[in-house]
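pls design
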């Protein structure tokens, strides 16, 4: 009797694992690529899916060149073959220069792969029959986002000293995670307007924007790493940064998405007597950015 019960429980356990592993609900990220007669283009992509039974709905976001596009998606997932089929949706043609460019009706076909290392959806967006000559297929591997465990300690405020703001660059803090710097440029950047101020430096304080949900970031200034893997909370992460007359970029790299996606921060910035309160939002395909420039100082009349 005990042997039979053990067998039943074992089979039930593996059935539960199989069921949970077959779902595509979640956030998926990847880079779609086309190769057509020597031309290459990339689509930085985010797929947010909800599965109920074999029906799948959600949202597909992608960045192409400087364009950001959002589409609703729907389709089906076959748990036996692990195949996700997405219905036709419009894609910006790879030759388009703006959002008014030609669209390509594309449908997706992906296979779910689950391993100890990652869960992925690998496949293609394929054009409808009428567009097969003008719209090449887009091959993409989506990887499922997995939140990192909550850090036990929130680090103290960090000050980057400014001795001579006209000559000295921000101090780069050494980190064993040097790959973060390399990964930064693989994600798209926001291109906000440049804010001009009468100040030689900025004081930047970052807080979690909303509920504290383990949002963890790496902080960059002019694409140089200032601090790595800091958790946002109600206690400020504070940095003092030199400012010159070129464009100076503050950027936030999402290390995770917290428990509530995306990764968001409230930035309170002082430039002399001016105060700015700005929101920053980043995810696995886009870095948040804020840009400042010091106004040139005019010579006083003699």
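designed seq:
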């Amino acid at each position: 009797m005990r042997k039979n019960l053990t067998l039943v429980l074992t089979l039930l356990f593996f059935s539960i694992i199989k069921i949970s592993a077959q779902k595509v609900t979640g956030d998926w990220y990847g880079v779609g690529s086309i190769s057509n007669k020597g031309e290459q283009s990339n689509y930085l992509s985010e797929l947010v899916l909800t599965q109920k039974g074999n029906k799948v709905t959600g949202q597909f976001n992608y960045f192409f060149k400087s364009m950001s596009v959002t589409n609703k998606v729907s389709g089906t997932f076959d748990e036996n073959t692990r195949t996700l089929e997405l219905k036709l949706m419009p894609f910006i043609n790879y030759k388009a220069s703006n959002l008014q460019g030609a669209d390509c009706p594309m449908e997706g076909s992906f296979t779910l792969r689950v391993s100890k290392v990652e869960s992925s959806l690998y496949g293609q967006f394929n054009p409808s029959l009428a567009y097969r000559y003008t719209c090449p297929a887009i091959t993409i591997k989506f990887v499922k986002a997995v939140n990192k465990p909550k850090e036990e300690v929130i680090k103290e405020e960090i000050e980057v000293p400014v001795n001579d703001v006209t000559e000295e660059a921000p101090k780069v803090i050494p980190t064993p995670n040097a790959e973060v710097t390399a990964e930064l440029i693989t994600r798209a950047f926001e291109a906000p307007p440049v804010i001009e101020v009468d100040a030689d430096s900025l004081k930047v304080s970052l807080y979690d924007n909303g509920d504290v949900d383990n949002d963890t970031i790496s902080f960059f200034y002019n694409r140089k790493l200032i601090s790595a893997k800091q958790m946002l909370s109600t206690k400020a992460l504070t940095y003092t940064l030199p400012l010159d007359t070129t464009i100076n970029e503050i950027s936030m790299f999402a290390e995770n998405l917290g428990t509530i996606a995306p990764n968001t921060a409230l930035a309170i910035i002082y430039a002399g007597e001016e105060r700015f309160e700005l929101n920053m939002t980043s995810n696995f395909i886009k870095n948040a950015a804020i840009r400042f420039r010091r106004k040139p100082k005019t010579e006083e009349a003699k």
